[in-house]
Specification:
Helices cover 41% and strands 17% of the residues. By secondary structure, it is of the alpha/beta class. A 7-stranded parallel β-sheet has the order 3-2-1-4-5-6-7, with helices on both faces. Strand 5 (134-139), helix 5 (154-174) and strand 6 (179-186) form a beta-alpha-beta unit. The model has no long low-confidence stretch (mean pLDDT 93).
């Protein structure tokens, strides 16, 4: 009997989210239901729906910067009971010197990532424990695996470390034989998320790593962590070119 897979993908309208949904659909849509969260870019799923008319994809709209939207999304998620949970969102990224710290950006980064993940996990993880199966993957960054991150990224780094702590706390409390909760930490990816960066910065990263990652570089690790065979829990896996 084919396994019934119910996926909750937060940040699904990101470049990584859209690409991964297509990857899942390409493997087969029988028994596959995807709850895809976005803020406003609902049309990003249209091409996938056209190519895979049998895909059961349901849109959840919420601005994770807003407490009211986070609470509403938490209520909606409590009725879903997913057995796969992928958390991808991050606030907008650009370099910022510490002397120019924007506390609004700092608060937005925390709200969109650690706070949103914990709020949603408070509904998703007990349901996974009750049903006896669950797999969770959280998008972090390679900078959470380094001794020191690059300069001029205080808000971004702080939010990612908070998310790392949230993932670890959830793995400690709910991870075990049946539920596995892990993170992935990719190096710089060639996506719209880094559009605000100077091209020189991107080129330096290309020279350092040989190339920038593509979303598809993440798929083998995500597939492993979200499979029934995964035996890892609380890990933060670095992915480089």
């Amino acid at each position: 009997m084919m396994e019934k897979q119910t996926w909750l993908i937060i940040g699904a309208s990101s470049d990584v989210g859209v690409s991964y949904i297509r990857h899942l659909a390409d493997k087969g849509t029988d028994g596959l239901t995807i709850y895809a969260h976005c803020n406003s870019r609902v049309s990003r799923f249209d091409e996938i729906k056209k190519d895979h008319p049998g895909l059961d994809i349901k849109t959840l709209k919420a601005d994770l910067k807003l407490k009211s939207d986070r609470e509403r999304l938490m209520d909606e998620v409590s009725d879903i009971e997913p057995n796969r949970f992928v958390f991808l969102p991050a606030a907008g990224f650009e370099y910022m010197r510490l002397k120019d710290l924007d506390t609004v950006r700092l608060e937005d980064g925390f709200s969109v990532q650690a706070e949103s993940f914990l709020m949603l996990s408070s509904k998703v993880l007990p349901a996974m424990k009750k049903t006896g199966f669950g797999r969770v993957a959280v998008m972090l960054t390679e900078y959470t695996t380094d001794d020191l991150p690059p300069k001029f990224m205080a808000d971004y780094i702080t939010a990612k470390y908070a998310l790392l702590g949230a993932m670890k706390a959830c793995a400690a409390e709910y991870g075990g034989d049946k539920v596995k909760i892990n993170g992935i930490s990719p190096s710089m990816m060639d996506t719209s998320f880094i559009n605000a960066l100077d091209e020189k910065i991107k080129e330096l990263n290309r020279m350092k790593a040989g190339r920038l990652l593509e979303p598809s570089d993440l798929f083998p690790v995500l597939d492993e962590l979200l499979s029934a065979e995964c035996d890892k829990n609380g890990c933060n896996i670095r992915i480089t070119a």
